[in-house]
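JOB MANIFEST
job_type = single_chain_structure
chain_count = 1
residues = 451
[input]
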Amino acid sequence: MPPDTTLLAYTVSQGLFTGDPQAALDIAVTANTAGPVYCGQILIAIPVGPGGPGVFTAPPTASVSTNTWAPTSAPRRSADPYSTPDTTADYTATIVYDALTGTTQPIGTGLTLGLEGAVNNTFGDTEIQIRETSGTTPDPATFTTKETKVMVRKTPAGFYVRNFIATDPSSPTAPRTDFTKGADIRLQWESNGTNFKITTPSRTIDLGTKTEYTLSGGVSRDTTLILTATSTSSTGSQAVLYDKLTLTIANPDLTPTSVDITSTLDVKGSTTLAAATAAALTATGPVKVGSLSASGTVDAISLTASGATISGDLQAHDLIAESGLTAASAKLTNVTVNGSTGVTGPVSLFGQSEVIYSGTDSGGEVSVTKNTDGIVVMEFMGGDPTRDGASISVYIQVGGKGFALGSPENPRVISVPISAGTQWTYRVALSGFNYSLPPSITWYPLGQNQT
């Protein structure tokens, strides 16, 4: 049956350098659970000896950070720290730490177990085995033994990596951390390692023995780069050191899943958002958003939204609403609605009317083209001939069809709907009649763009 999970956490404070004649190794002990933890004994089994598995060349001297605990040494043992004693060259020494006041101690954050001794000359990682006798009540009868392992790293003496900096390629002696998107970034560092790698969010670059590298095209957003330095011994053993460098980008690419803005969002270029909530939105370029909620004014050159709720005014030159659109007021130049449109308040559709012509002779056919849908109204209230041979010719022609006023004895009005961009013509020629008002042609646009 495997041992229980430890109630205490063990953190090694630092690594060791090979050949150090007097190195200190501290192990911080803290509670690993939210509730109280009580402990009566902690046993540390650490490999010792001149060979690779050993940490120290001989059993280390033990110490503890508080006078409520006391360390004692146990006989040397074999690779199994809990077996019978052994006297081989490479062995495991056990250090036992016992609680002194009463039989148990509640564990807070002030317990540090110390080991000190001479480090052997073989670098690499070595496991330290730990066995604790602990429980969640102060009653020792409820305690059980639990085991865990921690790793200790031995680094070759003198192996280093330092001064990891970024510069502009044209100014290699001026370190900096802020760049613009797409700008080349020169990286350099100092180390006596045998191999180096740079890790970005998207790839790892193997640089061999080089201690500088230019990141062509830079990075598009704030990024932390990881430098991995490796030292390989003649026997093939490896030691690894790491360094990191954080770069900020003044104009980064952002891909948020949602944006919640309590003040003004001012966008100069094209913007695509999955969802946006803003107090106000102003954009001089196109905006495409999955869902838009704005408590203030929205002003955009082009706005495409699958759904939008706007408490303030909405002004857009081009608007595509793929589903619901709610706005306190709207001033729109071009609107495309893929679904249904419902209006609960007053709606103003017509723009300012325009008298195209009023008189008795237009001088022949006149062509007209308007940039908005509208209705052209032709009217003549009638009159009486004043001579023989009196004549009347008042008509509109659009799309190959003509619409003319007939006999002038009765008032006549003709209205013709015309699409934006459609060319239409009119002609007025009247002679030999009495009339109160001359024939007139008036344009009633749908929308604001009358030109």
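[summary]
Residues 198 and 204 are 6 Å apart (CA to CA).
The chain has four domains: 8-155, 161-249, 259-337, 354-445.
exit_status = 0
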